[in-house]
Amino acid sequence: ERLVSGEQYIDDQAIDAALRPKKLDDFIGQERVREQLSLVLHSALRRGRTPDHVLLSGGPGLGKTTLAMIIAAELGRPLRITSGPAIERAGDLAAVLSTLSEGEVLFLDEIHRMARPAEEMLYLAMEDFRVDVVVGKGPGATAIPLDIAPFTLVGATTRAGMLPGPLRDRFGFVAHMDFYDPAELEIIVRRSAGLLGVRIDDRAAAEVAFRSRGTPRIANRLLRRVRDFAEVRADGYVTLDLARSALDLYEVDESGLDRLDLAVLRALLTKFGGGPVGLSTLAVSVGEEPETVEVVAEPFLVRQGLLARTPRGRIATPAAWTHLGLAPPQVPGP
Ligand code: ADP
Fold this sequence. Notes:
It holds the Pfam family WHD_RuvB. By secondary structure, this protein is α/β, with parallel strands linked by helices.
């Protein structure tokens, strides 16, 4: 199990829900996204129209679902949640779209994983608030146009690059969510500690924030693990020393790299001499799917300046060698 993966686990679900900010003003960080989104929502409210469709792109655990919920709350509209993998046929999507109420917010998570025929249906729905329901098969099949209520689609994706152009173009507002700064995560950790009743020292909160891979979900998860540790090993008050010991125990290193990050980095250095190496070769060498390495591990390694993506493949930076305490290969002299 990856303690520091941004992915949501079963035991996260209830906690995620409890810790979610409910209003845009309580959403921490992502300043620009928040400001732009606030304009989109408030101008729509003022004009009494449904706002443009919104696309949120960014890694797991960065707050896409939270923002979708906030959008619905700010608009005072109900929220319907579904996801790309749940839509296997166009009919699955038609069933959702045709039962939306006026102004409803539809959150479509992992939108890049939706079935192709459904995608085409979505184009029409987003643009004209209409779906064509196909009745019958073969030459006798007819498309019956069906009006649907104006709605706002909030699409989320971890891979914006995977979205077909025509789909992307139909979003009036595209927001890219980036990793959070340690200072922002520290605010999140303190806020969560307050909500969960965890007593934590400021320096310990900063340490948890710093080791959270720039990701709020991980910050909340590490906070719980650190709390457990403090309850079992001490009186429950989380000090810096306790936080450090707990984080070491859970194999999160001082800069927040977890086991997969370190495995990828180590493979890149020791098996491929620092690269360049192709993504799939690198993924195979650590026993992971290329998508996991690309979406989960790499963005953070790139952000930390340890890995670079080049047209010839992945390469390690000099900082990567230092980070793992290894000597870079000698460059042959002239
Ligand atoms: P995603 O949908 O991108 O995977 P979520 O919206 O489910 O991520 O966020 C995961 C958890 O992180 C939520 O429980 C929420 O409490 C917390 N979180 C995310 N973004 C923020 C934020 N900006 N401020 C405070 N907490 C946040």
